[in-house]
Amino acid sequence: MYYCPRCNRSIAKEHVEVADRELRDRFGITKLSSLRCPVCDCEYIDLDKVKEGGRRHADKAKQKDDTP
Ligand SMILES: [Zn+2]
After folding, report:
1. Which of 28, 57, 58, 59 lies 20 to 30 A from 48 at CA?
2. Alpha-carbon Rg of the chain, whole angstroms?
3. pTM over 0.70
4. How confident is the model at residue 58 (pLDDT cuts 50, 70, 90)?
5. Do 6 and 37 touch, CB atoms closer than 8 A?
């Protein structure tokens, strides 16, 4: 699982591969190949590698979503 700290969004690794192919074919965007967010150009965080920090990020994002 990858996470973009700026967009507060996480994306599954399998999905990154699919999205990367699609973005490259359709728009010529190759940012996902270098694991950068195609939206904000921020570097993705690999949540599997930094479980504690990543979980904190994810919880924070969740709380933010729940708050009206
Ligand atoms: Zn982003």
Report:
1. 28
2. 13
3. no
4. low
5. yes
Cα 31 to middle of ligand 1, angstroms: 11
Residue 10 alpha carbon to ligand 1 centre in Å: 9
Report CA(37)–ligand 1 centroid distance (Å).
Answer: 5
The two three-digit tokens of residue 63, written as one number: 């709380």
Say how many Å lie between the CA of residue 39 and the centre of ligand 1: 5
Looking at residue 38, its amino acid is P
User: Does 49 have pLDDT greater than 60?
Assistant: yes
Which amino acid is located at 33 in the chain? S
DSSP element (H, E) containing 28: none
Entry field: residues in the chain: 68
47 CA distance to ligand 1 middle (Å):
15
